[in-house]
Amino acid sequence: MDSEKGNTMKRTGALLLLLLCIFAAPVLCAATVEELRKDAGQGDVESQYRLGQRYEAGKGVKRDFAKAAEWYGKAARQGNARAQTNLGNLYRAGRGVSRDYDKALEWYRKAAGQGDTKAQINIGMMYASGMGVEKDEAEGLEWLQRAAAGGDTQAMVQLGTLYQTGKGVEKDYVTSTEWFRLGAAKGDSIAQHNLGLSYYRGRGVKQDYAQSVKWHSKSAKRGYPPAEYSMALRYAEGKGVKQDYAEAASWYRKAAGHGHPSAMSNLGILYRKGQGVDQDYDEALKLFRKAAEGGHPPAQYQLGKMYLEGRGVARDPDAARKWFGKAADAGHKGARKSLQSLEEGE
Hints:
Layout: H1 2-24, H2 30-41, H3 45-57, H4 65-77, H5 81-93, H6 101-112, H7 117-129, H8 137-149, H9 153-165, H10 173-185, H11 189-201, H12 209-220, H13 225-237, H14 245-257, H15 261-273, H16 281-293, H17 297-309, H18 317-329, H19 333-344
Protein backbone atom coordinates (compact mmCIF):
# COMPACT_ATOMS: atom_id res chain seq x y z
CA MET A 1 0.00 0.00 0.00
CA ASP A 2 2.82 2.41 0.96
CA SER A 3 4.53 1.69 -2.38
CA GLU A 4 1.32 2.33 -4.30
CA LYS A 5 0.75 5.55 -2.36
CA GLY A 6 4.30 6.64 -3.09
CA ASN A 7 3.87 6.01 -6.82
CA THR A 8 0.63 8.00 -6.82
CA MET A 9 2.37 10.93 -5.16
CA LYS A 10 5.19 10.78 -7.72
CA ARG A 11 2.69 10.80 -10.59
CA THR A 12 0.84 13.73 -9.00
CA GLY A 13 4.10 15.62 -8.57
CA ALA A 14 5.06 15.01 -12.20
CA LEU A 15 1.67 16.22 -13.36
CA LEU A 16 1.96 19.40 -11.28
CA LEU A 17 5.41 20.06 -12.76
CA LEU A 18 4.03 19.59 -16.27
CA LEU A 19 1.20 22.05 -15.56
CA LEU A 20 3.68 24.58 -14.19
CA CYS A 21 5.72 24.26 -17.37
CA ILE A 22 2.66 24.79 -19.53
CA PHE A 23 1.38 27.86 -17.70
CA ALA A 24 4.56 29.46 -16.38
CA ALA A 25 7.19 29.05 -19.13
CA PRO A 26 9.92 29.85 -19.72
CA VAL A 27 11.38 30.71 -16.27
CA LEU A 28 9.93 27.75 -14.40
CA CYS A 29 10.77 25.46 -17.31
CA ALA A 30 14.46 26.36 -17.48
CA ALA A 31 15.22 22.97 -15.93
CA THR A 32 13.76 21.34 -19.03
CA VAL A 33 16.36 23.10 -21.15
CA GLU A 34 19.08 21.98 -18.75
CA GLU A 35 17.84 18.42 -18.98
CA LEU A 36 17.90 18.64 -22.77
CA ARG A 37 21.43 20.03 -22.64
CA LYS A 38 22.54 17.26 -20.31
CA ASP A 39 21.02 14.49 -22.43
CA ALA A 40 22.21 16.11 -25.66
CA GLY A 41 25.74 16.29 -24.26
CA GLN A 42 25.56 12.56 -23.61
CA GLY A 43 24.74 11.94 -27.26
CA ASP A 44 20.94 11.59 -27.17
CA VAL A 45 19.96 12.46 -30.75
CA GLU A 46 16.39 13.57 -30.01
CA SER A 47 17.61 15.90 -27.27
CA GLN A 48 20.21 17.34 -29.63
CA TYR A 49 17.52 18.03 -32.22
CA ARG A 50 15.14 19.56 -29.69
CA LEU A 51 17.90 21.71 -28.21
CA GLY A 52 18.66 22.97 -31.71
CA GLN A 53 14.98 23.89 -32.05
CA ARG A 54 15.09 25.79 -28.76
CA TYR A 55 18.09 27.85 -29.87
CA GLU A 56 16.63 28.52 -33.32
CA ALA A 57 13.31 29.73 -31.91
CA GLY A 58 14.68 31.36 -28.76
CA LYS A 59 12.35 29.25 -26.66
CA GLY A 60 13.56 29.00 -23.07
CA VAL A 61 17.00 30.20 -24.17
CA LYS A 62 18.44 33.28 -25.87
CA ARG A 63 18.02 32.92 -29.60
CA ASP A 64 21.32 31.77 -31.09
CA PHE A 65 21.46 30.43 -34.65
CA ALA A 66 25.09 29.36 -34.27
CA LYS A 67 24.20 27.12 -31.32
CA ALA A 68 21.14 25.90 -33.22
CA ALA A 69 23.42 24.89 -36.09
CA GLU A 70 25.81 23.22 -33.65
CA TRP A 71 23.13 21.02 -32.08
CA TYR A 72 21.32 20.33 -35.34
CA GLY A 73 24.70 19.30 -36.74
CA LYS A 74 25.29 16.79 -33.94
CA ALA A 75 21.82 15.26 -34.45
CA ALA A 76 22.12 15.41 -38.25
CA ARG A 77 25.40 13.49 -38.21
CA GLN A 78 23.62 10.80 -36.20
CA GLY A 79 21.04 10.52 -38.96
CA ASN A 80 18.12 12.56 -37.59
CA ALA A 81 16.20 13.61 -40.72
CA ARG A 82 14.45 16.60 -39.14
CA ALA A 83 17.78 17.94 -37.90
CA GLN A 84 19.28 17.43 -41.35
CA THR A 85 16.47 19.45 -42.93
CA ASN A 86 16.73 22.25 -40.36
CA LEU A 87 20.51 22.38 -40.71
CA GLY A 88 20.00 22.65 -44.46
CA ASN A 89 17.63 25.57 -43.84
CA LEU A 90 20.30 27.38 -41.81
CA TYR A 91 22.91 26.87 -44.53
CA ARG A 92 20.48 28.07 -47.20
CA ALA A 93 19.61 31.21 -45.22
CA GLY A 94 23.09 31.82 -43.84
CA ARG A 95 21.88 31.82 -40.24
CA GLY A 96 24.46 30.82 -37.65
CA VAL A 97 26.67 29.53 -40.47
CA SER A 98 28.03 30.99 -43.68
CA ARG A 99 25.51 30.69 -46.49
CA ASP A 100 26.36 27.60 -48.47
CA TYR A 101 23.85 26.23 -50.98
CA ASP A 102 25.96 23.13 -51.63
CA LYS A 103 25.88 22.15 -47.96
CA ALA A 104 22.19 22.99 -47.76
CA LEU A 105 21.49 20.69 -50.68
CA GLU A 106 23.72 17.99 -49.21
CA TRP A 107 21.78 17.92 -45.94
CA TYR A 108 18.43 18.15 -47.72
CA ARG A 109 19.35 15.12 -49.83
CA LYS A 110 20.28 13.11 -46.73
CA ALA A 111 16.91 13.94 -45.13
CA ALA A 112 14.98 13.44 -48.36
CA GLY A 113 16.53 10.00 -48.70
CA GLN A 114 14.87 9.14 -45.40
CA GLY A 115 11.49 10.33 -46.69
CA ASP A 116 11.46 13.79 -45.09
CA THR A 117 8.94 15.66 -47.23
CA LYS A 118 10.05 19.14 -46.13
CA ALA A 119 13.54 18.38 -47.39
CA GLN A 120 12.05 17.12 -50.66
CA ILE A 121 10.09 20.37 -51.02
CA ASN A 122 13.20 22.42 -50.36
CA ILE A 123 15.18 20.53 -52.98
CA GLY A 124 12.33 21.13 -55.40
CA MET A 125 12.37 24.85 -54.64
CA MET A 126 16.13 25.06 -55.17
CA TYR A 127 15.90 23.40 -58.58
CA ALA A 128 12.84 25.41 -59.61
CA SER A 129 14.56 28.71 -58.77
CA GLY A 130 18.13 27.74 -59.69
CA MET A 131 19.32 28.36 -56.14
CA GLY A 132 22.82 26.88 -55.89
CA VAL A 133 22.07 24.49 -58.75
CA GLU A 134 21.41 24.79 -62.45
CA LYS A 135 17.77 25.76 -62.84
CA ASP A 136 15.69 22.70 -63.72
CA GLU A 137 11.96 23.16 -63.35
CA ALA A 138 11.23 19.56 -64.34
CA GLU A 139 13.52 18.30 -61.57
CA GLY A 140 11.88 20.71 -59.14
CA LEU A 141 8.45 19.43 -60.11
CA GLU A 142 9.56 15.85 -59.59
CA TRP A 143 10.69 16.58 -56.03
CA LEU A 144 7.42 18.35 -55.21
CA GLN A 145 5.45 15.39 -56.56
CA ARG A 146 7.54 13.07 -54.41
CA ALA A 147 6.70 15.13 -51.32
CA ALA A 148 3.03 15.27 -52.26
CA ALA A 149 3.01 11.50 -52.71
CA GLY A 150 4.32 11.33 -49.15
CA GLY A 151 1.19 13.15 -47.98
CA ASP A 152 2.68 16.64 -47.55
CA THR A 153 -0.07 19.21 -48.04
CA GLN A 154 2.41 22.07 -48.52
CA ALA A 155 3.67 20.26 -51.60
CA MET A 156 0.10 19.73 -52.79
CA VAL A 157 -0.62 23.46 -52.47
CA GLN A 158 2.58 24.35 -54.32
CA LEU A 159 1.77 21.92 -57.13
CA GLY A 160 -1.73 23.33 -57.37
CA THR A 161 -0.30 26.84 -57.59
CA LEU A 162 2.23 25.85 -60.28
CA TYR A 163 -0.49 24.35 -62.48
CA GLN A 164 -2.74 27.34 -61.83
CA THR A 165 -0.09 29.87 -62.88
CA GLY A 166 1.63 27.75 -65.53
CA LYS A 167 5.01 28.34 -63.92
CA GLY A 168 7.35 25.56 -65.02
CA VAL A 169 4.41 23.47 -66.29
CA GLU A 170 1.63 23.88 -68.81
CA LYS A 171 -1.23 25.80 -67.21
CA ASP A 172 -3.94 23.33 -66.23
CA TYR A 173 -6.78 24.47 -63.99
CA VAL A 174 -8.25 20.98 -63.66
CA THR A 175 -4.99 19.51 -62.36
CA SER A 176 -4.47 22.57 -60.19
CA THR A 177 -7.88 22.18 -58.58
CA GLU A 178 -7.34 18.47 -57.96
CA TRP A 179 -4.14 19.17 -56.07
CA PHE A 180 -5.96 21.76 -53.98
CA ARG A 181 -8.74 19.23 -53.38
CA LEU A 182 -6.28 16.62 -52.13
CA GLY A 183 -4.74 19.10 -49.71
CA ALA A 184 -8.14 20.39 -48.62
CA ALA A 185 -9.34 16.87 -47.84
CA LYS A 186 -6.36 16.51 -45.50
CA GLY A 187 -7.39 19.67 -43.64
CA ASP A 188 -4.86 22.14 -45.06
CA SER A 189 -6.34 25.64 -44.64
CA ILE A 190 -4.49 27.13 -47.63
CA ALA A 191 -5.63 24.29 -49.89
CA GLN A 192 -9.20 24.70 -48.63
CA HIS A 193 -9.16 28.41 -49.39
CA ASN A 194 -7.63 27.88 -52.83
CA LEU A 195 -10.23 25.21 -53.62
CA GLY A 196 -12.91 27.70 -52.63
CA LEU A 197 -11.40 30.22 -55.05
CA SER A 198 -11.45 27.60 -57.82
CA TYR A 199 -15.18 27.12 -57.28
CA TYR A 200 -15.78 30.87 -57.06
CA ARG A 201 -13.95 31.57 -60.32
CA GLY A 202 -15.03 28.38 -62.09
CA ARG A 203 -11.46 27.32 -62.78
CA GLY A 204 -11.04 23.60 -63.24
CA VAL A 205 -14.55 23.03 -61.93
CA LYS A 206 -18.03 24.31 -62.69
CA GLN A 207 -18.57 27.68 -60.99
CA ASP A 208 -20.40 27.06 -57.73
CA TYR A 209 -20.69 29.85 -55.15
CA ALA A 210 -22.16 27.53 -52.51
CA GLN A 211 -19.16 25.19 -52.78
CA SER A 212 -16.89 28.21 -52.68
CA VAL A 213 -18.42 29.31 -49.39
CA LYS A 214 -18.23 25.76 -48.01
CA TRP A 215 -14.45 25.57 -48.50
CA HIS A 216 -13.77 29.16 -47.53
CA SER A 217 -15.71 28.55 -44.33
CA LYS A 218 -13.66 25.46 -43.47
CA SER A 219 -10.44 27.41 -43.97
CA ALA A 220 -11.68 30.53 -42.16
CA LYS A 221 -12.71 28.53 -39.12
CA ARG A 222 -9.09 27.39 -38.89
CA GLY A 223 -8.07 31.05 -38.63
CA TYR A 224 -6.59 31.53 -42.12
CA PRO A 225 -6.83 35.33 -42.77
CA PRO A 226 -7.32 35.24 -46.58
CA ALA A 227 -10.24 32.84 -46.07
CA GLU A 228 -11.74 35.11 -43.41
CA TYR A 229 -11.49 37.93 -45.92
CA SER A 230 -13.09 35.79 -48.65
CA MET A 231 -15.99 34.94 -46.33
CA ALA A 232 -16.50 38.66 -45.74
CA LEU A 233 -16.58 39.27 -49.49
CA ARG A 234 -19.12 36.49 -50.04
CA TYR A 235 -21.47 38.02 -47.43
CA ALA A 236 -20.94 41.53 -48.81
CA GLU A 237 -21.68 40.32 -52.35
CA GLY A 238 -24.40 37.86 -51.44
CA LYS A 239 -22.78 35.11 -53.51
CA GLY A 240 -23.30 31.62 -52.11
CA VAL A 241 -24.95 33.13 -49.02
CA LYS A 242 -27.66 35.70 -48.34
CA GLN A 243 -26.23 39.20 -48.44
CA ASP A 244 -25.51 40.30 -44.89
CA TYR A 245 -23.32 43.33 -44.19
CA ALA A 246 -23.25 42.65 -40.45
CA GLU A 247 -21.84 39.18 -41.11
CA ALA A 248 -19.43 40.66 -43.65
CA ALA A 249 -18.24 43.16 -41.03
CA SER A 250 -17.73 40.31 -38.55
CA TRP A 251 -15.48 38.41 -40.96
CA TYR A 252 -13.63 41.56 -42.05
CA ARG A 253 -12.96 42.26 -38.37
CA LYS A 254 -11.49 38.78 -37.85
CA ALA A 255 -9.23 39.10 -40.88
CA ALA A 256 -8.24 42.66 -39.92
CA GLY A 257 -7.33 41.40 -36.46
CA HIS A 258 -4.93 39.02 -38.19
CA GLY A 259 -3.33 41.91 -40.07
CA HIS A 260 -5.12 41.58 -43.43
CA PRO A 261 -4.88 45.08 -45.02
CA SER A 262 -7.74 44.68 -47.52
CA ALA A 263 -9.99 43.58 -44.67
CA MET A 264 -9.03 46.71 -42.70
CA SER A 265 -9.80 48.91 -45.68
CA ASN A 266 -13.14 47.25 -46.49
CA LEU A 267 -14.21 47.29 -42.84
CA GLY A 268 -13.35 50.99 -42.80
CA ILE A 269 -15.69 51.52 -45.76
CA LEU A 270 -18.51 49.78 -43.89
CA TYR A 271 -17.96 52.05 -40.88
CA ARG A 272 -17.89 55.12 -43.12
CA LYS A 273 -21.15 54.12 -44.82
CA GLY A 274 -22.80 52.59 -41.76
CA GLN A 275 -23.40 49.27 -43.51
CA GLY A 276 -23.73 46.34 -41.11
CA VAL A 277 -22.28 48.54 -38.33
CA ASP A 278 -23.14 51.89 -36.78
CA GLN A 279 -21.65 54.72 -38.83
CA ASP A 280 -18.40 55.73 -37.19
CA TYR A 281 -15.96 58.01 -39.01
CA ASP A 282 -13.37 57.76 -36.23
CA GLU A 283 -13.25 53.96 -36.52
CA ALA A 284 -13.15 54.18 -40.31
CA LEU A 285 -10.27 56.65 -40.14
CA LYS A 286 -8.35 54.42 -37.72
CA LEU A 287 -8.72 51.39 -39.99
CA PHE A 288 -7.80 53.29 -43.15
CA ARG A 289 -4.76 54.80 -41.47
CA LYS A 290 -3.44 51.48 -40.16
CA ALA A 291 -3.68 49.81 -43.56
CA ALA A 292 -2.43 52.92 -45.39
CA GLU A 293 0.65 53.24 -43.21
CA GLY A 294 1.34 49.60 -44.02
CA GLY A 295 1.50 50.52 -47.71
CA HIS A 296 -1.96 49.38 -48.88
CA PRO A 297 -2.97 51.58 -51.89
CA PRO A 298 -6.78 51.23 -51.58
CA ALA A 299 -6.57 52.28 -47.92
CA GLN A 300 -4.29 55.18 -48.85
CA TYR A 301 -6.92 56.30 -51.33
CA GLN A 302 -9.71 56.00 -48.76
CA LEU A 303 -7.65 57.89 -46.18
CA GLY A 304 -7.09 60.65 -48.73
CA LYS A 305 -10.86 60.89 -49.25
CA MET A 306 -11.41 61.20 -45.49
CA TYR A 307 -8.98 64.14 -45.36
CA LEU A 308 -10.46 65.74 -48.46
CA GLU A 309 -14.04 65.48 -47.15
CA GLY A 310 -13.17 66.20 -43.52
CA ARG A 311 -14.76 63.01 -42.19
CA GLY A 312 -13.49 61.99 -38.76
CA VAL A 313 -10.69 64.52 -39.12
CA ALA A 314 -10.29 68.21 -39.96
CA ARG A 315 -10.42 68.85 -43.69
CA ASP A 316 -6.86 68.91 -44.98
CA PRO A 317 -6.31 69.02 -48.77
CA ASP A 318 -2.54 68.73 -48.33
CA ALA A 319 -2.89 65.49 -46.36
CA ALA A 320 -5.39 64.28 -48.96
CA ARG A 321 -2.88 65.05 -51.71
CA LYS A 322 -0.18 63.17 -49.84
CA TRP A 323 -2.22 59.98 -49.52
CA PHE A 324 -3.69 60.19 -53.02
CA GLY A 325 -0.13 60.56 -54.26
CA LYS A 326 1.08 57.45 -52.47
CA ALA A 327 -1.80 55.40 -53.84
CA ALA A 328 -1.41 56.89 -57.33
CA ASP A 329 2.29 56.03 -57.36
CA ALA A 330 1.27 52.42 -56.70
CA GLY A 331 -1.07 52.51 -59.71
CA HIS A 332 -4.43 53.16 -58.02
CA LYS A 333 -6.64 54.66 -60.77
CA GLY A 334 -9.15 56.27 -58.40
CA ALA A 335 -6.34 58.01 -56.56
CA ARG A 336 -4.85 59.30 -59.79
CA LYS A 337 -8.20 60.74 -60.79
CA SER A 338 -8.77 62.32 -57.36
CA LEU A 339 -5.26 63.75 -57.34
CA GLN A 340 -5.79 65.26 -60.77
CA SER A 341 -9.14 66.76 -59.74
CA LEU A 342 -7.61 68.18 -56.57
CA GLU A 343 -4.80 69.83 -58.50
CA GLU A 344 -7.11 71.19 -61.19
CA GLY A 345 -9.40 72.62 -58.54
CA GLU A 346 -6.67 74.76 -57.02
